[in-house]
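Input:
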Amino acid sequence: MTQTSELINALADKHGRNRENLLSVLQGVVRQEHYLSESTMVEIAREMDLPAAEVYGTATFYSFLEYKKMGQYVIRICKTITCSMKGKNQILLTIEDMLKIGVGETTPDRKFTVLQTNCLGWCHKAPAMLINDEVYTELTPEKVREILSEYLKK
Amino acid sequence: MAKEYNLKRADFIFRNENDWENILSRTLDKDSRELINELISSELKGRGGAGFPTGLKWKLTSEAEVAQKYVICNADEGEPGTFKDREILMKVPFKVLTAMAICGYITGATKGFIYLRGEYKFLQPDLQKVIDEFAYYCKEIGFDFSIEIFMGSGAYICGEETALMESMEGFRGEPRNKPPFPTNKGYMGMPTVINNVETLAHTYTIFKHGAKKFYDLGVQFSRGTKLFSVSGDTPKPGIYELELGMSLSDFVDEFGDGDTKAVQVGGASGFLVPRKRFGETSIGYKGKLTGISLPTGGSMMLFNSTRSMFNVLDNYLEFFREESCGQCTPCRVGCQQLHMGIKAVKQGQKPAVYLDKLLKLTETMQYTAKCGLGQSVANSFSSIVENFREEMIY
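Output:
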């Protein structure tokens, strides 16, 4: 068995193989592999005895279940109204400048992907972003540079 | 004589929760019908924004005679400008768990879920610890109720209760037709109470202090207190607990920066109130006797005169366009057309009167969209376009 099928098997053992366990299994794969490839989704469908189209349809509905190859660290910058008003563009420019990639792109070393996302729920501490599950708020270009330098060292 | 309502601060929600064990065991000793009547007489309404009477919801679910029922805490806080539910789960999680367990006792549900939005994944480890401790106590007192966290994966629409259940059942988060309502057929087709995090926290206050204490706060039709998430152009952004029924001008006096041009009440799906209407607008559920009363899930976003209302609307529509589940045509196509439409007017590709066509379209969406998302796009769209028409054109 490949590494991915082992992972899917383990996740299905843990959460169950019923339809209501699908999201948990999908989330578990994304946690490990950062995205769901087509073959992964087919494999999940087989493991849970579901039509592959159902798995694909469900997975692609959710913005955090990526189906394109993602970097190890997914940066999601909030673009909703308050973050937008409080300098989101400056933050985005700083990140693009440091990583030399644009929104929706992944660095060649597959370490970072930059995305924009809808309201993260930190409007009172805008602008905000997520790096994987970690939240960063009240961002300034300087603060973002510091945060990213730390990640670059990892 | 009409009563004067000023801004009244309160402190119930975040007040200490160290007495949860006592509140839980004390409440579980009472008769469940008595508790429902207590909750109904408090006139607590859902704090997520829709405002359904909480006591009635619990009562309807309690009346169903089936083996399995569920309690769900809706923590899919996605409305732009709301961030209070996270704070509750971080600061007073035991209140929410206790309220869920009491709801289980009253309705006969033995299983509870917290649907936590994907963006709040970082909360999960701490929340799980609290749940484990809570489960230990329930076992100790011989009360059969368990709580599980279900993680969302980044979909605003899953805050809609039936979409949330679809999502929990492993499907795309597409809202269901109503009726049947969740109190009848909810999660896995079973009767389900689904409440917003804050609503549950308020029931804790009610079971602790009694319904009268809660009822005496606020105004007619809008009893009790509410958490407000204040953001935008304000010197003091943050979370505040206030009595319902306050006038918007009092609110702006307190939170504005002296140059407040408009306030968005209830997030992107709510209403934009321009300065000239601050005085006549109050914050509460529908049913106020005079003036305009606006409900809110707590989102209060202030805009000062440096902000372009076109940019604000453009941002909202991009949000709705992306977050529409795509299931029904009025919402899926409507949101796209509105977004393209205002840009076309701004760029001079369409005449100004095209805005009236778009307003007509929002009206159609209001009548024909399947769920609250598509229906409520009209709220912000019409209130912005009607009050700031010039900004849309020039």
